[in-house]
Structure formats: C-alpha cells, structure tokens
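Reply to dn_fold:

You asked what the input looked like. This is it:
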Amino acid sequence: MKLWLAAALALTVVACAPRSDDRDDARGRGAQPSVAPPASAAAPAPPSAPPSVGARPRIAVLGDSLTAGLGVPKAAAYPSLLQEHLDADRLDFEVVNAGVSGDTSAGGLARLDWALDGDVRVLIVALGANDGLRGLPAEELRRNLAEIIERAQARGITVVLAGMEAPPNYGRDYIISFHTVYPTLAAHYRVAFVPFLLQGVAGHDALNQPDGIHPTAAGARIVADNVWAVLKPIAEARRRPTT
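and this is what came back:
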C-alpha cells in the first residue's frame, strides 16, 4: 500500500496538459485544473481510422495522452515501443495506438467500437488518469472499465488492464476507492493486470517532460517495459500457428 500511495502523491497531474484558457478559467473559479472536456461535452473525436494492416492481427491500446504520446515523437510513444518488442521477438502483431488526449474512461467506452475495428486479438486498457484528475466518482470509472472489458471479452479478445492512481487532491478515501477499482476488476474478469502504468516514472523529474505530467522518451520506454512484461506471454500464446 505504501508504494502505490507514494506514487499517487507524486502523481498530482496526469494525462493531458490544459490549455491556457482552461487554466485561467480554473483559477477564476478556484477549481482544480481539468484536462478533459466537461461531462456534458461530446467525447473527443478519435484520430483517423486505424490503418489497414492486411492480415496481421492487432493489439489495440485504448488510452489517453499517456498512450497517444503527447510531447514525444510518435515512434517514442509506448505503443510504438511495444511494436518494437513484438518485432524483435518475431511476434506477428500490429499495434494500434488508440490513445486520445483528454479522454476519460467514458470517452474510451464511447469510441470502443472504433478501437476494436479489424482483427483485434488483444486490447490494452489504459484509462482513468483524467477520471482521477477531475475527481469523477470511482464507481463511474468501475462501470465504464467493466463495460469495456465485457464487450471486448464477448468478442473473444484478451484484455490487459493497466492500473492508474488518483492524485491526492481529493483525499485519502477517494485515492483508496480509485485504486481499488483496478485490481478488483482484474480479479473479477480474470484479465491480465499491469498494477500501475507509470510505475518507475511518476514523480521522477528526469523521466518526465517539463510539465511534470507526460513521460519523456526515456520514461515512455519504462512504461513500455511495464506493459511488455505482461503482454509478452499473452502475445506468445495468441500468436498465429505456423503452417
């Protein structure tokens, strides 16, 4: 418990830096800065449709700006680094980066069908950073993630759930309830679990960009290693049989 709580205390802001007008508006209200659109706003439009990859099965990574790779070259974002691992081990999968900056778990759920387009064999769910930053109810996070998992599993897709921690702004009770969502869902649905996506990166200045929010290229490599440790045996088990 001490480890994840320390990480939560270090992770005071995550996911997507607010625009300057958002910051000014937040200061005027005395509120915490927000990185996601208001709940009443439409979910962010996804980027262009996942590229056609022919016959190669897919691994989709559903997330926010931590997945999209805000602030680093596309090749340095952790989904691209997962592709490097797969290629090096001759595991014939194509990684689709389905990260959208500012997305909450509700936003990810809203565009799930887009993320699962094509022959998706594995779905990595890396959502919740913006839920925690906005102080959204942990029960809402649980419901959204549960529906994502259930819908993916109904298609025969293997799910990897990446945990996130809430910032300390909303108090210990919220931090605990938020934290508990991830291991509880992983156990209930028997999905592979990355306990904390930013393990070894959050709170380390040298591994984060000047905003203190998004990993540098070096930090993204650690994030990729965190995910790869769980993804590798799944990819090996789900590889296509050779003929």
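The two ends are 48 Å apart (CA to CA).
Hope that clears it up.
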